[in-house]
Amino acid sequence: MPLARLQGFARRSSAAAVRGLLRIAALAVLLLPCIWMAGAAFTPTLERLAHPLALWPSAPTFEHFAAVWESGMAQSVLNSVWVAPGATLLALALAFPAAYGLARLAFPARLDLLFLLLVLALKLMPPITVAVPLFSLAKWLHLLDSLFGLILAYQLYALPMAIWMLLPFVRDVPIEFEEAAALDGANLAQRIVFIVVPLCAPGLVATAIFVFIIAWNEFLLALLFVSSPSHFTLPLAMAGYVTENGIDWGELMSAGLISSVPTLLLAGYVQRYLLQGFSGGLK
């Protein structure tokens, strides 16, 4: 019996050691590129050319950050600060009523299911497939090369995902709460604002963060819609450091580090909401 227990303990220890090694390997795969990006941002150009794979410089410098900021990165940051929250607020304003209607209203012939399938199809569709007609529509509406036009275009990504994520949260709100409020004289708008929205707060926050990250990092539609450097968002500005003559790794990584900070801070601050929103979106 002691021998059997010893063998079982050895097997459990071996399995735990293997799991630990796999976790360390996965963590290294995830963190090493981030560490290299941060190191490259602070590495002098000559040192980077001499030791391209070094994770951290021997003499850190801020020269790349200064060059990036002087090249007009500040304007790109402001543009992204305007576009990403604007796209997020618009997506939530349109998606929440849609999610509420799908959760509460009775549709004939299962039209709600058809609408959900359409939303899912839009969510899964590669944006490049509708880029040309979307460009033509924006040109006809005189929305090209404008930040407002970019906010509207980003709904192609944001709106389907926002509806899909918010729907389970609205469904989880007991209908009895709304019925009780209706008996007390509350109208539909009051029931939504004072009952449904507060109870869906985790879903709203999680959806807002996901939409914000998508809009903050979006490149394809920005490339199609924006032509003036004064309207460039951060991804477009970063693409300027990759040219036919080579890649300026120091400035590119500095711009990447600047671009990553807001999303990392937001994701860390609302981590529990993100987990709830992700699990809710899978229901």
Termini gap: 46 Å
How many β-strands, per DSSP?
A: 2
CATH class of the largest domain: Mainly Alpha
Q: Specify the overall morphology.
A: globular
Radius of gyration computed on alpha carbons: 24 Å
Within the CATH hierarchy, at the fold level, what is the topology of the largest domain? MetI-like fold
Specify the CATH homologous superfamily of the largest domain.
MetI-like
What strand order characterises the main sheet? 1-2
Low-confidence stretches: none
Number of domains: 2
Average pLDDT level: 82
Major sheet characteristics = 2 strands, antiparallel
Strand content: under 5%
Any guess at the CATH architecture of the largest domain? Answer: Orthogonal Bundle
The helix fraction, in percent, is over 70%
Task: Please give a structural write-up.
This protein is mainly α. The protein has 2 domains: 2-50; 63-281, MetI-like (MetI-like fold, Orthogonal Bundle), CATH 1.10.3720.10. The chain has helices spanning 2-41, 45-50, 63-104, 111-124, 131-140, 147-153, 155-172, 175-183, 188-199, 201-217, 220-225, 234-239, 249-269, 271-281; strands at residues 242-243, 246-247. A two-stranded antiparallel ribbon has the order 1-2. Strand 1 and strand 2 form a beta hairpin. Helix 1 packs across helix 13 and helix 10 runs antiparallel to helix 13. The radius of gyration is 24 Å and the shape is globular. It starts with a helix and ends with a helix. Keywords: Cell membrane, Membrane, Sugar transport, Transmembrane, Transmembrane helix, Transport. Part of the ABC transporter complex MalEFGK involved in maltose/maltodextrin import. Probably responsible for the translocation of the substrate across the membrane. One of its GO terms (cellular component) is plasma membrane. Residues 77-270 form the ABC transmembrane type-1 domain. The chain crosses the membrane at residues 21-42, 81-102, 114-135, 147-170, 191-214, 220-242, 249-270.
